[in-house]
């Protein structure tokens, strides 16, 4: 598996998360409502955020891309990928509330899916989300992920023991979606 290449589109740049992103990401990770469905509770200090993101800045199993607007090097959130088995990765993401409703999460996740499926040739990507996290579920469905399972009492979190929904997407499904979008007439 390769490192963390910089991924770009007309409006976004995804680059490796850096410790210096802690101040911008504290805004995201201290948002109590946003963190409801995260595995840990809202952060209380920038130092806590710095310690939390530091492992994502080096080697390790998770690759974390900071989501930034092109020409602005301020992290709005991130997309993570972790190879769980040969050619199978788990994906996760979080985005600052002011960036919601602009298609940024969908675009950023799509850029990482292109990296995983096209550049790296992985066969499957999966995500897990809380059954009550309607925004994440909607994003996964828009991206073509299929609901594959419901695990009961899977996670112990800051809000108690929670179920999780598993969603999966196969390389061939992603490539077919891309081909369909490319063939669709522009509006």
TrEMBL record:
Annotated SUPFAM superfamilies: Acyl-CoA N-acyltransferases (Nat)
Domain N-acetyltransferase: 12-166
The organism's place on the tree of life at top rank: Bacteria
A molecular-function term among this protein's GO annotations: acyltransferase activity, transferring groups other than amino-acyl groups
PROSITE patterns associated with the record: GNAT
Gene3D superfamilies: 3.40.630.30
Stretches of the chain forming a coiled coil according to its record: none
Keywords tagged on the record: Transferase
InterPro entries named among the record's database cross-references: Acyl_CoA_acyltransferase (IPR016181), GNAT_dom (IPR000182), N-acetyltransferase (IPR051531)
Name of this chain's protein: RimJ/RimL family protein N-acetyltransferase
Organism of derivation: Blastomonas natatoria
């Amino acid at each position: 598996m390769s490192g963390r290449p910089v991924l770009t589109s007309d409006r976004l740049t995804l680059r490796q998360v850096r410790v210096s992103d802690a101040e911008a990401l504290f805004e995201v990770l201290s948002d109590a409502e946003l963190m409801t469905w995260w595995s840990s509770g809202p952060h209380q200090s920038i130092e806590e955020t710095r310690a939390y993101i530091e492992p994502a800045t080096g080697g390790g199993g998770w690759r974390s891309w900071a989501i930034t607007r092109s020409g602005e090097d301020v992290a709005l959130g991130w997309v993570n990928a972790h190879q769980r088995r040969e050619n199978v990765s788990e994906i996760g993401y979080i985005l600052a509330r002011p960036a919601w409703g602009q298609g940024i999460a969908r675009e950023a996740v799509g850029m990482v899916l292109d990296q995983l499926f096209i550049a790296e040739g992985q066969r499957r990507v999966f995500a897990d989300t809380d059954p009550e996290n309607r925004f994440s579920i909607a994003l996964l469905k828009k991206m073509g992920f299929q609901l594959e399972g419901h695990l009961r009492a899977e996670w112990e979190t800051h809000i108690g023991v929670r179920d999780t929904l598993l969603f999966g997407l196969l390389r061939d499904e992603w490539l077919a979606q891309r081909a369909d979008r490319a063939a669709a007439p522009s509006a």
